[in-house]
Design goal:
Elements (H helix, E strand, L loop, with lengths): L7 H14 L9 H12 L5 E6 L5 E6 L2 E3 L2 E6 L3 H8 L2 E7 L9 E13 L3 H9 L1 H11 L11 E14 L4 E7 L3
Antiparallel strand pairs: 1-2, 1-5, 3-4, 4-7, 5-6, 6-7, 7-8
C-alpha cells in the first residue's frame, strides 16, 4: 500500500477539523505569544530527551535534566556519547512532553537548535550553575547532605533554539511553529 505524506496544508486542515469536531476554537498565537507559552511550559520541568548525531550518522538520545532561561536550554552532564557526538555535530533536537492520557491532554514542544559545550572553568558554566541551584538544593534535601561536585567532572550544554513546534491541545494550540530570527 502506498503511503501518502501529508502536506503542511493538509495537516493544518486536519487540525482545524479536529478542533471543529471538538467544538473548540483553535488559537493562532503571535510569535511573542507563542514564545511566552513555550517559556511557561519549559519552566514546569517536564521530562526532556536530547537527541544528538555524530559524523557516523547514528542518532543517540539521552533523557536529561534541564533548566531554561527564556528559550535557551541548559543541560549539565558528567559525560557520555552525547559529548562525542556534539564535537562532531552541534545540531541537536530536544523533545519535552507531558503525559498524554487523551488526545486532548497532549502538551509538548519539539526543539531543534545549536548546542555549545562549556567546561566548569567558564563564566557560562557558572551562570548555568546558578540557574540549577533549586535542583541542587532539592538533591541535597533528598540526600541529607550537601552536593559536592569535583572540578572537571561536569560539562554544560547550552542549546539555542533555531526552530520549535509546540502543542497544547486542551488550549487550542496545535502544531504552532516558531523559527528564530535569521
Amino acid at each position: 500500500m502506498a503511503v501518502h505524506e501529508l502536506t503542511e496544508q493538509e495537516r493544518e486542515q486536519m487540525i482545524d477539523l479536529y478542533y471543529q469536531k471538538m467544538n473548540m476554537e483553535r488559537k493562532r498565537l503571535s510569535k511573542k505569544e507563542l514564545e511566552q507559552e513555550i517559556i511557561d511550559y519549559l519552566s514546569k520541568k517536564h521530562p526532556c530527551s536530547l537527541a544528538t548525531c555524530g559524523k557516523d550518522g547514528v542518532p543517540r538520545i539521552s533523557v536529561v535534566d534541564y533548566i531554561n532561561d527564556g528559550l535557551t536550554i541548559y543541560i549539565i552532564s558528567e559525560g557520555g556519547e552525547k559529548f562525542k557526538n556534539l564535537r562532531e555535530n552541534n545540531k541537536v533536537a530536544i523533545g519535552i512532553g507531558s503525559s498524554a492520557r487523551t488526545t486532548q491532554s497532549v502538551r509538548g514542544v519539539n526543539i531543534w537548535g545549536i548546542a555549545e559545550v562549556f567546561t566548569d572553568d567558564t563564566p557560562e558554566f557558572a551562570y548555568a550553575l546558578k540557574l540549577f541551584k533549586p535542583v541542587l538544593k532539592a538533591m541535597e534535601k533528598e540526600m541529607g547532605s550537601p552536593v559536592q561536585i569535583p572540578k572537571g567532572i561536569l560539562r554544560l550544554i547550552r542549546v539555542t533554539p533555531t526552530k520549535m513546534v509546540y502543542h497544547h491541545n486542551k488550549m487550542g494550540i496545535k502544531n504552532a511553529h516558531w523559527v528564530a530570527d535569521e
